[in-house]
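Hey, weird one. I pasted the Acyl-CoA dehydrogenase/oxidase N-terminal domain-containing protein sequence into the form twice and got a warning about non-standard characters only the second time. First submission, copied straight from the form history:
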Amino acid sequence: MARTPDRKAGLLADVRALAEQHLAPHAGAIDTEARYPAAALRALGAAGAFAAALPASQGGQDLDLAAQAAVIDAISAVCGCSGFLAWSQAAAAATVAFGDNPALQQALLPELADGRLGAGSGLSNALRHLAGLESLRLGARHSGEGYLISGVLPWISNIAPGHVFISAAALEDGGLLLFLARGNANGLALEPCPPLAGLNGSLTHTCRLAEVYVPAADVVAGPETSTALLLRLRGWLALSQTGLGLGIVDGCLHDIREAGHTQAELNRHLPEQEDTLAAALHSARERTRRLAAQFDDPAAYADVLRLRARSAELALRAATAALLHAGSRGYQLRHPAQRRLREAGFFAIVTPALKQLHKELAQLERGSRRAA
Ligand SMILES: Cc1cc2nc3c(=O)[nH]c(=O)nc-3n(C[C@H](O)[C@H](O)[C@H](O)COP(=O)(O)OP(=O)(O)OC[C@H]3O[C@@H](n4cnc5c(N)ncnc54)[C@H](O)[C@@H]3O)c2cc1C
């Protein structure tokens, strides 16, 4: 798709138009009826929505992380489930791009970038492990030119037999392996998770791996580089995901304005108003844009966590406000305010979850007090 001179603005305009056309009419069904937005994701992928920050040589838009976060924000303002699917796809592509397997990058990045190959990011466990919260759930042992991987990951979204996912496993002889697994691999069972409160169209599965063979060609990073890669990537993942929360806030502002058409007189007595939420949204977006340039600077990591936590709290606040402004109409199950409450709840519990963020921040603050 041709870009205007301001390529970022052009990409965002395309994404907004596609989201309005393909997602707005179906957001409720995607959330509650498990309708996977396949056609919308294909169109968004073709427009460059999953690869804003990748170089053109890898099938990307040659923009930056701020643009990727803004794209996820624009999608999530219309449908949080689709925003999370876009994030999952972009995160998987970014992980391969950050890796040290040029042949894999050449073979798969163009297809990951434009969404022809659906992809999930199963890195919660590895990231929580890195934060000292849990042990690795997958183990890897050498087998011929590759590895056999076993274990269970309770949640991976955007995964199906024709898709791939990225995850990490503990190697038998020490160290961490970052790998790409095929959704139809022998030994991989994809169990649909029980009905969810929301995001039912997210193709979320429990993944059971029983000696799944991952050839060397599908290794994203070996034990020498994988931890450094994750340490660089975690800021990228958290900041791009901030777009999900800020898009949900934007959607709540839309619902508050809608309610104002008929209930403005009474609604002005509510403690939370559109202008304060809009100001907080603007400031969080600005902060995302500025921090994006420092996503892999260890000195900025605490600020990234603070921003990610602030956006989760803002999304919860905005979703509650949207319900209160919508009143009894907003209590109907199919009202968007109900969906946004579920979306905001999801954003607060997905890795890095609010409780993880506050724990990590407390640890970092204790560390810097000790160093002072
Ligand atoms: C709808 C949905 C989609 C998700 N998609 C992804 C994804 O695409 N990729 C990804 O990496 N993570 C995904 N997750 C996981 C998410 O990112 C968090 O890691 C997870 O919710 C744990 O968050 P928590 O900090 O609240 O820990 P808690 O929920 O408090 O969990 C504590 C421990 O219990 C484990 N646990 C939680 N649920 C189960 C379960 N059903 N079976 C066994 N153990 C369990 C957790 O892994 C953790 O070790 C998804 C979660 C949900 C609800």
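That's the output from the first submission. The warning seems to come from a hidden character in my clipboard, not from the data itself. Residues 88, 120-124, 134, 154-157, 196, 199, 202, 204, 349-351, 353, 355-356 surround flavin-adenine dinucleotide (CB under 6 Å).
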